[in-house]
Specification:
With 435 residues, this protein is α/β, with parallel strands linked by helices. The chain folds into two domains: 222 residues, 3-Layer(aba) Sandwich (Rossmann fold); 198 residues, Glycogen Phosphorylase B (Rossmann fold), CATH 3.40.50.2000. It has 19 helices and 14 strands. Helix 3 runs parallel beside helix 4, helix 10 crosses helix 14 and helix 11 packs parallel to helix 17. 46% of the residues are buried.
């Protein structure tokens, strides 16, 4: 009966979400491609490849999880070079990242929607030797059907946020059955473990591993050179200090621009680079900044030749393309991590700029990285602000005090180094479940 009600409610929710999906198709373009895969309808060529031999199936919902999946894939390939993979994702931007992760013997697909008939049809085709889910990706029908087919299901880098923990606990009668279908649940912290147990997960399948995201590798030389060229083309001198807003959400671009304007009173050469979390927001961000009197130079236009290279130091560079943020962190001096200022909640990945040894600022909402933030706080390796006004003050402070700025970066880099190792441990557990 519980599964019946879940399927009814999920179906209603999916129908209500369809307008949003259609808007994404319009904005992102590539969202429409291979849409049938979401309904378990694969082309004959893809279906044949999915069925031809058993592969490890790794799911990454969007860009952040895809980057995490890239770390796991690299480690699994190192430990088990004969393995090949099915890589699934949910978003078109995630698909773009995953295209760069897949090798010739891998198969890239969109995750089938969690309807019972779609899941059954898909898993009759997909030949998986294990399913690896990232962070908090719990798809009840997929998990349950894998268990029925004796396909091990493994959660990696698992986390349960402050917001979702009470919901899982309240619905323990349902999610307890879902969590019992996992072979292993590898989580980031003791708090995540306690929350899963409270929601009905068996304690014996849970292991605390730390965050896999600490095992990030530095950007390649080619990626760094590409980013240097981007800055040069935008008229940004290699000597100019850079304030970078990474994975920004609505309202944060304007807050950064106003903070930058104030910081230029003390540091006239500082330049502002903004990388919105969703590239399709480029027009919206440009309108908002232009309305406040700022000049915007867009990476997408530079890339396709519709906007000339060069520019004045009064322009903001907006990198409204996918896959260029991480190497830009290495070239920045001060970094603000987005989705952290009100009304946004959850936070984006602050480990990436910290790994580059940068002074990192976040707003108060970092719920998706609670255990990571605890580590940075204990090391005094990150600057937290409560609102746009405090963000401006923090940027001014770090501009005026290079020694403090550098010390934040040193502590941030050291915190990342001290917490590496979850990736190797997690990969070993995944492979052990194949035996």
């Amino acid at each position: 009966m519980r599964w019946f009600f879940y399927n009814i409610l999920f179906g209603i929710g999916y129908i209500l979400m369809l307008p949003k999906f259609f808007m994404r198709m319009k904005k992102r373009g590539g969202y429409r491609a291979n849409f049938g895969q979401r309904l378990g309808k694969f082309s004959p060529e893809t279906a044949a490849r999915l069925a031809e031999k058993p592969r490890i199936w790794i799911h990454a919902v969007s860009v952040g999880e895809a980057n995490l999946a890239g770390l796991v894939l690299h480690e699994l390939r190192r430990l088990a070079p004969d393995e090949s993979f099915i890589i699934s994702t949910t978003s078109s931007t995630g698909y773009g990242v995953c295209e760069n992760l897949a090798q010739d013997d891998d198969v890239l697909i969109y995750l089938p929607v969690d309807f019972p008939s779609v899941v059954r049809r898909s898993l009759d085709i997909i030949n998986a030797k294990a399913l690896v889910l990232t962070e908090s990706e719990f798809w009840p029908n997929i998990i349950r059907t894998c268990r029925k087919k004796d396909i091990p299901v493994i959660l990696i880098n698992g986390r349960i946020s402050d917001r979702s923990a009470p919901r899982y606990k309240k619905l323990k009668c349902f999610f307890g059955d879902v969590f019992k279908c996992f072979s292993k649940m590898l989580v980031q912290s003791e708090i995540d473990k306690e929350r899963l147990i409270a929601a009905g997960a068996p304690e014996n399948i849970i292991r605390v591993m730390g965050s896999v995201k600490f095992d990030i590798s530095p950007p390649s030389r080619e990626a760094l050179e590409k980013s240097r060229s981007t800055l040069k083309d935008a008229g940004i001198s290699p000597e100019a200090p850079i304030l970078l807003g990474g994975s920004t959400w609505r309202g944060e671009e304007t807050a950064l621009a106003k903070a930058w304007l104030k910081a230029r009173e003390k540091s006239p050469e500082i330049r502002l680079v903004i990388v919105p979390r969703h590239a399709e927001r480029g027009d919206e961000v440009e309108r908002e900044l232009s309305a406040d009197g700022f000049t915007v130079k867009r990476r997408s236009r530079m890339k396709n030749g519709t906007e000339p290279s060069g520019g004045d130091k009064n322009a903001i560079l907006m990198v409204d393309t996918t896959g260029e943020l991480f190497p830009l962190y290495s070239l920045a001096d001060i970094v603000f991590v987005g989705k952290t200022l009100p009304p946004n909640i959850g936070g984006q990945n602050m480990i990436e700029p910290a790994s580059a040894g940068k002074a990192v600022i976040t707003g108060p909402h970092t719920e998706n990285f609670a255990s990571v933030m605890d580590i940075f706080r204990k090391k005094n390796a990150i600057k937290e602000v409560s609102d746009a006004s405090e963000l401006s003050d923090a940027i001014m402070w770090l501009c005026e005090d290079p020694a403090t700025r550098d010390s934040f970066g040193i502590r941030a880099g050291a915190a990342v180094e001290e917490n590496r190792g979850a990736l190797a441990r997690s990969a070993e557990v995944i492979l052990s479940q194949l035996e």
